[in-house]
Amino acid sequence: MSENLHDLLESDDPVALRRIEKALISGDERNETVDAVISALIWRRCTAGQHGVLGAILNRECAARISVLADHLEKVGATDAAKAMRDLRQEIPLEDEQIRSGIIDWIDVNPKIVSHAATLDDGVDDIAPEVWSFMQVRQDNLPDPEIPDKRQGLFGALFG
Asked: Within 13 Å and on the Cβ side, how many CA atoms surround 42?
């Protein structure tokens, strides 16, 4: 059973954020609100792993948004994450275009950035509540795509 985004936003707790991200990315409706939500959800996913804040420049999806990422995080209310992103970006003396292309080789040669990013992790909590609140307040600016159930395909039909 699928639900629409606006139905999900009736809940007080953030749910299905990865599926919401996929639905918004695959949708045709784009505006500043949608772009900010997508950036924040991508940043959240890329930084949730073992690399933390460093994941924002290691993951190609996140790095592709390097020029707008801090502004989008600020827009959704994730000010600590935006500050960490600006701080990390300031430590990298490369142009946005170079970062978008991937900088793993640069990181290998400049290992101090890894320890600097690790210090930034401590000041950044999960941004899910901020993104969720932002979406709830701005439902009128968001499309209402169908958010598919977690289980899809044959196994979803058998076990769902």
From this structure: 25
Tokens 């600097």 correspond to what residue?
116
Convert the pLDDT of each residue in 120-137 to its tens digit: 998 899 999 999 999 999
CB under 8 A, 24+ apart: contacts of 56-65:
56/85, 56/88, 57/88, 57/92, 57/99, 57/103, 57/107, 58/104, 58/107, 60/102, 63/99, 63/100, 63/102, 63/103, 64/100, 65/39
CA torsion sign for 75, 80, 86, 89 is negative
- Residue type at position 81: A
Query: Between the CA atoms of 85, 131, 74 and 117, what dihedral angle is there, to the nearest 10 degrees?
Result: -10
Report residue 125 as tokens.
């909590």
**5-36 pLDDT, tens digit each:** 999 999 999 999 999 999 999 998 899 999 99
